[in-house]
Amino acid sequence: MDQPFAIETRGLSKHFGDVRANDELSLIIPKGTVHGIVGENGAGKSTLLKMLFGFYRPDGGDILVRGEVVRFQNPMEAMGKGIGMVHQHFMLVEPFTILENIILGSEGGADLNAAKAKAREDLKELEEKFGFDLPFDEPVERLSVGVRQRAEILKALYRGAETLILDEPTAVLTPQETEQLFGLVRQLKAQGKTVLFVTHKLNEIMAVTDDVTVMRAGKVVAVRKTNETSAAELAELMVGAKVAREAARAETGEHKVRLSLNGVYASGDRGHTALTDISLEVHDGEVLGVAGVAGNGQTELLEVITGLRRLARGRIWYDGAVIADEKTTTDPITLRRMGVAHVAEDRLKTGVVESMSARENAILGYQREADFSRRGLLKLKEIAKRAAGYFESQDVRPRNPNLPISSFSGGNQQKLVIAREISRAPQLMIIGQPTRGVDIGAVTKIHDQITELRNAGKAILVVSADLDELLAISDRIAVMCEGEIVGTLKVEDSDEQTLGLMMAGEKRNAG
Amino acid sequence: MAGANKKLPLWAEAGLLPTLNLLAAFLVSGLVIWGLGEDPFLALSLLVDGAFGFQEAIGYTFYYATNFVFTGLAVSVAYHAGLFNIGGEGQAMLGGLGLTLAVFLVGDTSPFLAIGLAILGAAVFGAAWAFIPAWLQAKRGSHIVITTIMFNFIASALLAYLLVGPLQRPGGQMPESADFPAGVGLVHAHDLLAMMGMEFEQSPLNVSALIALACTFAVWFMLTRTRFGYELRVVGKNHSAARFAGIPVARMTIVAMMLSGALAGMMGLNEILGEQLRLIGNFTLGYGFVGIAVAFMGRNHPVGIVLAAILFGALYQGGAELAFEMPNITRDLIVMIQGLVILFAGAMEHLFRDPIERLFMRFRAREAA
Amino acid sequence: QPVLLYDVGGKFDKSFNEAAHVGAEKFSTETRISYRDFEPSSETQYEQALKRFARRKADLIVAVGVGYSVAVRNVASQYPDVKFTVIDAIIELPNVQSITFRENEGSFLVGMIAAMKTESNKIGFIGGMDIPLIRRFERGYQQGAEYVNGDITLIENYVGTTPSAWNDPIKASEMARSQYARGADIIFSAAGPSGLGVIQAAKDTGNLSIGVDSNQNHVAPGFVLTSMLKRVDLAVYMAMKEASDGSWQAGHRVMGLEEGGVDYAVDEHNKGMFTDEMKARLEQARAKIISGEIVVGDVAGSNSSH
Amino acid sequence: MEFFADLTLLIDSTFRTATPLVLAGLAGLVAERSGIVDIGLEGKMLAAAFAAAAAAAVSGNPWVGMVAGVLASMFLALIHGYVSIAQRGNQIVSGMAINIAVAGLAPTLANFWFHQGGQTPLLGDEARFSAITLPFAERLSDVPVLGQLYTEIISGHNLVTYLTVLIIPAVAWMVYRTSFGLRLRAVGENPEAVDTAGISVTKLRYQAVLIGGLLCGLSGVVLSTGMGAAFIRDMSAGKGYLALAAMIFGRWKPVPTLLACLLFGFVDALQGRLQGENLPLIGEIPVQFTIMLPYVLTVIILAGFAGKMDAPKASGIPYEKDH
Ligand SMILES: Nc1ncnc2c1ncn2[C@@H]1O[C@H](COP(=O)(O)OP(=O)(O)OP(=O)(O)O)[C@@H](O)[C@H]1O
Ligand SMILES: Nc1ncnc2c1ncn2[C@@H]1O[C@H](COP(=O)(O)OP(=O)(O)OP(=O)(O)O)[C@@H](O)[C@H]1O
Ligand SMILES: [Mg+2]
Ligand SMILES: [Mg+2]
User: Fold this and answer.
1) Cα A42 to ligand 1 centre (Å)
2) Partners for D (CB, 8 Å, 3+ pairs)?
């Protein structure tokens, strides 16, 4: 008989120490549907998925696949049951080619070359069916996130996945890539596959899913048919309260130029030219958004401005004074003293020191400021006080500054980082990916804070992969492509499509 | 893994676990001894008694421990900066050389000045020897584990050259320098105590033990209380975050290594300026390597390092006494026991941690209920 | 009960520690007086060990190796009523007997043997650790060889510069192979256990080697030309014997050819390789050395007191 | 001609001395490619040298020695594996501990069994892998150049050396041309990816350390039953560390590692050759400085490669999958 449910869980529970990550969780996912899961950071989404994929073992309850109870000991068994997963942080071996990554673990035979040859054949078929076109022999480390993700999906399908689990797949994608992904998802559905889809972006839920489950604190708080609910309702269900409208942007009028780049060139880590002839201005009281497909120079742009990368050519002025040119770079400490704050794009890699406590992270970059250290000695009391303050003001959870930062979710880490950088009342704020992977509750709060700064007449530069975000908080949006600024638009005359096309380098615009 | 260290109370963390590991090591050693047809329990009691049983023994135990405190601190300072300094051995040798040169430079004119200079010389030469690998690591990315190992070999050859050449003891047969001028040397503990009217058997224990303790405190203070220590640890954990925070990674790498080298170099104070009163070709006897084990057994915490150092001091001294008393237990066997202790106490902390943690969890759960 | 203290080289170093051990064994089997011995693992333990046995009022403490000089000096002055015998070092104290050897004289003779035996006119020397003590082996060896044949060439190598050089037979044998390949057909190795590598190389390449300290002729019969004996065993034996029958005296005793402290070994394994003519020349030279007609050179400062 | 002769015998010696380095280097390579840093090569080598010499001495058969040596080394590899994989312990400390423990245990057992003070009895030729003269070596020896090369350099090494010549391509093939190799390289780079691909990280790493143990075992075997003819305390004399250095030089790749080992072997032979030589200009170099040569050279070459070396990203980091 044909069992209608692809996956069912009954009273599924998972604890980490005393944290109930998943608590008596029951849900049903009909075959051939796209099922969305939303919830705050730490709601338990990833945990649930990892159990379904056999990566964690449940502490209680059952998982049923096509009607039969399963007890996965490891992902292999899950795959055996036709469950494939694309993780939030990709599970790819960077120096390997896509092909090698795909066959890893299911080579079928000791001879590698034979295995590769065979895999190529089998993959052709899949490619036809789902319209992939991947550079199989490129090392993954050279590929864009979008491509990597499709590689991950293909990997799952190659292993015969019937049900595909996606954890925050769009967090790092461009609109085009996102669209491409959705196209793929619809195609999978058309082919009778089931898709389980976690995201923090409710419009995506509305766009692709058939049903949506809302989680809070490890529990299911609601299940809805997508066409019978609204983003607003979901948001409410998630946080358990009405989500405040984002603060309005006050009229700040014309203001002096705070930051300006003129003909800036810089080379990237691989020695290639990452920035070509970049010129831009940021005024007080405005938010300049920078859009672009990841890896088109945004990272390097942030770095040259914040003194982490030297220029090959060109000049950078701050408040009328040169802070960088071919010869000179101003070091981050001095920049901070001059009132330049920096929210690093890659939180875990740059913005925080994972194994250090939240308290110690609360002064990272400001350790030399008078109120944190005097004559080389740390002012521990002062630091503790400040950290506690950040936890309060940003409502960081769990409320314990002594935990290592690694045991906070990205969302909470980000709140802390923002607090740290805002606390110095900067004149210029440089922000990379303000809300990547952060739940909407936090997103709203962070956006509000950015807007408040702006209204208070500060200058802000935001790099983000999330166009909605840029459209929501920017005054002007500059679009980068292949290290150049292909155009700058006033927010009122920009929209996803145009921006998207410009990002893809299809359309230029001297706005 | 986060908060794993929070799962146990301090006494279990710092007391119970190390003890269990130690017992495990002794258990295995005991089996070997038994296999060799000797009485393990007698051996153990002799070892303990030989290490702490009488004043002289205690003196020797702490004398050896002093060496390990220096080398252990050296390893851990580098480690906090994310560097593996296997070069303690060579740095110690150069430290010994530095202090010797200082002594022969001014020893005859002013012993006091000489001692002062010697302490300085030990630190400076040790630091200098660490500088080159550090610089290569910072600027050229040369693997510091390898370069420091190489520098150990180079140091020993260099010392050998000087000790059968320029620094050769007149008419000497072995690679060793002439004796230090009279009066140049660190005060022994028994003399010190005698001055204070306390009777204590003779032993090589000398004031460098106090210097070692001072260094321990300094390192602890530096790591936990100073901005420099904070920046050093940031560099150790995450270079890109360090750059973000405006910390000059390369310079920090070099400075940390030089501090490490200086600490290792000061080991010579105890061996050379404290006891031998002449430079001996191979006076380091692998203490630099043992420092690695000491540092990790001490969980890279200054206090832990002191405890681990005392443990090893006891093994050395007690081991010697054991070999005195039981002729069939050779010094080789003692070396093996040391190896096992390093293995169990230094590398297998989870052996008992995980079960014990589970125990505590259940215990807490019951309390909660 | 007498006590024997080895140096860090350890009891069975196939060298003079072992020789000392043999001497003590000989003593105790003859006299049925047992003895205690101890292998320190660091210089620091020298003094520790000396004190310990001094406190126990040992009849005699024999310390082997120049490394002991300082330690013995300190402890002996602290325990004036205890007898000390130190080998390879010289301490001037009323309760210390110092015994040193003229290794260079023995080396002179084996040098002659090598020179008389070589067909390639090239001979080799491989030292263990590069220290004066070993340099004087080389010096005497060279002088002896040149005494026989003025234009003989000597190829020399040292295994290393740290104590580990005594325990690296692999490197020693590589050096030996190289020397043989370069034309040497006889190699004298003063390298402790590393010397076994030299003998092995001689065997593998069908050449000759010369052993050292104790008689190593038996190690590879036919490939060990002879061994330069350094009779530490004799010294230890005598010291213990004298101490037990009361004839022990403090002071400095030098053991050269005259005293039979050094010599070359002839036994069933190698007597075939000696012609009477060779023997004659050797005995002649021995006589000349003893009479002082031949003065065997030495390296700076060996044997001078501390 | 003098020069040519010198060169041939330097190269000849290079092959001999490089053999244990290459084997140990490859051992370290396999282990570290899987993410397990193995600074315990020294100890495994020594243990194998002892076990091989002891077994060969007792049985009079080198093959028995080889088996014993390899087993001893693999046993230690297993311990290191257990500590690093199951116990998630510090791999460097574990390695050092093994080195120290073996340095003590081997002579103790040797003394206990053979009463020759921490040594094993000298092996007769039948009990060891002595030099093999390849066919025609004698006859070709007087054919200029080629013939000499054949006789002097190619011929006349011990069996293990020739075995090594086969092992090198075998290891390279395993690492790059087999599925196992793919998994091996993957687990050293990103164990989590391997885990989610459904392969047991633990099993893979145990396999790697065991292979390492086998290779390292052979390197010990050649020391005491090939190049030497007995076990002598500490006879590994730092070769384990040197092999590790060679592997890092070789950037964790088989062939470059081989070259690095050959370089070390050559420089070592050269330093022996330079001792006591009166060089033009320089004059006679003191032994202590010729001894330094290999180490100084290592440092110089290391400094030559600027930039980070591409070590396996996960090497030295215990893999913990939380629950
Ligand atoms: N490996 C772990 N160890 C300890 N606790 C964990 C672990 N993983 C998750 N948790 C706990 O379980 C809770 C749920 O985590 P989970 O990753 O499922 O949240 P999430 O919904 O995926 O959050 P996000 O939206 O940030 O991805 C967290 O609050 C956390 O405290
Ligand atoms: N090792 C760990 N120890 C304790 N908690 C953990 C651990 N790993 C993850 N967590 C918890 O799991 C939750 C989410 O983990 P995850 O790694 O999914 O965060 P994240 O996905 O980076 O957050 P975001 O989705 O906002 O980016 C967090 O609340 C965090 O507290
Ligand atoms: Mg998650
Ligand atoms: Mg997440």
Assistant:
1) 5
2) A, B, C
**Which chain D residues touch A165 with a CB distance below 8 Å?**
none
* Residue C305 reports pLDDT greater than 80: no
Judged by a CB distance cut-off of 8 A, whether residue B340 touches chain D is yes
pLDDT in tens, B231-265: 999 999 999 999 999 999 999 999 999 999 999 99
Spell out which residues of chain D touch residue C158, defining contact as CB-CB under 8 Å: 275, 287
C258 by Cβ neighbours in 10 Å (0-12 / 13-18 / 19+) ranks as middle
Domain ranges of chain A: 5-239, 256-339+429-511
The answer to whether D180 faces chain A, any CB pair under 8 Å, is yes
Best of A172, A215, A409 to mutate for ligand 2, by most ligand atoms within 8 A of CB?
Answer: A409
**Can you give the pTM of this predicted structure?**
0.89
The HSE-up count of residue A116 (CA atoms within 13 Å, CB side) is 16
d(CA A481, CA A498): 13
* Amino acid A293: pLDDT: 77
Query: Would you list the domain boundaries of chain D?
Result: 2-128+136-305
- Which structure tokens are listed for C304? 């001078």
Q: How far apart are CA D151 and CA D137, in angstroms?
A: 5
At which residue do the structure tokens 């312990």 appear?
D89
* Residue B368 pLDDT > 90: no
**Which residue from D42, D36, D72 is spatially nearest to D54, judged by alpha carbons?**
D72
Cα(D106)–Cα(B160) distance, integer angstroms: 28
Angle at A155 between CA A151 and CA A161, to 5 degrees: 135
pLDDT number for residue C71: 87
Q: Does position B19 have pLDDT exceeding 50, yes or no?
A: yes
Q: What is the CA radius of gyration of chain C?
A: 19
In percent, how much of chain D has pLDDT > 70?
A: 97
C-alpha C122: how far from chain center = 24
> Which stretches within C149-291 are classed as H helix?
169-181, 195-205, 232-245, 276-291
pLDDT for D153 equals 75
Residue A141 burial (CB count, 10 A): 12
Cis status, amide bond into C221, omega within 30 of 0: no
Tens digits of residue pLDDT in A244-295: 666 677 776 778 899 999 999 999 887 788 999 999 999 999 999 999 877 7
CB atoms within 10 A of CB D136: 13
Residue A216 CB less than 6 A away from ligand 1: no
Yes or no: say if C160 and C131 are a contact pair by the CB < 8 Å rule: no
Instruction: Say what the pLDDT of residue A348 is.
Output: 79
Q: Which CATH number fits domain B36-351: 3.40.630, 1.10.3470, 2.50.20, 3.30.160?
A: 1.10.3470
**Rounded average pLDDT over C135-161:** 94
D2-128+136-305 topology per CATH: ABC transporter involved in vitamin B12 uptake, BtuC (1.10.3470)
CATH of domain A256-339+429-511: 3.40.50.300
Q: From the CB of A438, is ligand 2 less than 6 Å away?
A: yes
Subunit contact D13:C11, Cβ cutoff 8 A? no
Interchain touch C–A (≥3 Cβ pairs closer than 8 Å): no
Return the amino acid letter for C90.
I
- The arithmetic mean of pLDDT across residues A372-393, rounded, is 93
CATH superfamily of A5-239: P-loop containing nucleotide triphosphate hydrolases (3.40.50.300)
- The bridge status of strand A34-39 relative to strand A211-216 is parallel
- Token digits for B19? 């003890």
Cα separation values, B298 from B211, B292, D249, Å: 19, 10, 32
- How far, in Å, CA of C133 to CA of C125, rounded? 14
Q: How do beta strands A321-325 and A313-318 pair?
A: antiparallel
Is pLDDT of D121 > 60? yes
pLDDT for residue B1: 34
